Amino acid sequence: SVKAGTREGYCFYDEGIRLQLRAEKAIEHDMEAALRKHEFIVYYQPKVSPESDRITCSEALVRWRKPDGQMIQPGQFIPVFEKNHSIPLLDRYVFESVCIWLRRMLDEGKPALPVSVNVSCLQFYSSDFVKTYREIRDRYRIPRGLLEIEFTETILFDDWHVMNRTVKQLKDAGFICSIDDFGKGYSSLSTVKNLDIDVLKLDAVFFQDTGTLEKDRQLVAGIIHMVRQLGITTVAEGIETWEQVEFLRGIRCDLIQGYVYYKPMPQEEYEALLINESGEYGRDAGVRQPEG
Ligand code: C2E
Ligand code: MG
Ligand code: MG
Ligand code: MG
To answer: What is the ipTM of this complex?
Structure first.
């Protein structure tokens, strides 16, 4: 760890940093073994239309279940995998898991709604990214429009041409393209201007004060209105109160992803929910339920 540190020009006076680096090294080392042992599992969080209160699609979110049963949240390991550039391995694993599940749903005649997966935006610069994802998708014969790629701008894009080429290739291949965490980090209106994306996911930071501050309500309403005019689907993330839902419904935000409707849940639970919901079509299905 001292070697890595000196390479980057740091000095480790701080025992805390040293311990953290050691923990990161351990996580890195564990990843490939964990992949082989299927310790990574995919949770699904529904996205709901506030207009109908119905689930329209979901996001796949990875968790790490250690052999001792401990569940580790992505915030603890994704940044490490990003740092050492091993994240594409995990992203592909999650993507393939989703394809396998969708294939089974289709085979069993169960409701198969679109699923989005997260990919590190580093992958957008790798030439075989689209090809790899297309091959996996084709292997499981997943129809166009059932898979969505979410990417977060964690680096400042300067080459819109390269980015747009990737977005175009993804869309040509039948993937839906989304910008995640809009409003947080580097993403800005130039992203919307420069990239031909399908979906914009507004980060929770946007909604924190929409319950109280008129200025924030106006700002969010303006952004959602403008983005909709461009034909882009809007998703509000991190929504926790019915007051927020009411507001978002009023300004015609397309979809809501938040604890107010559902938390991320294991695949079996989401599958049961979808089957239950599809059986209740035509009735006012109470989709709200606490999740564990
Ligand atoms: P994200 O892609 O923005 O996913 C949304 C995160 O917000 C999820 O956290 C979700 O559980 C959380 N969330 C949703 N609604 C609420 C709410 O109402 N309140 C609060 N407090 N949180 C809410 P999670 O599952 O911990 O994932 C964190 C991040 O880790 C994700 O943010 C994503 O950037 C990354 N991630 C997760 N799975 C993958 C993956 O397979 N590949 C990559 N590259 N990144 C992933
Ligand atoms: Mg996401
Ligand atoms: Mg993200
Ligand atoms: Mg997000």
So the answer is: 0.98
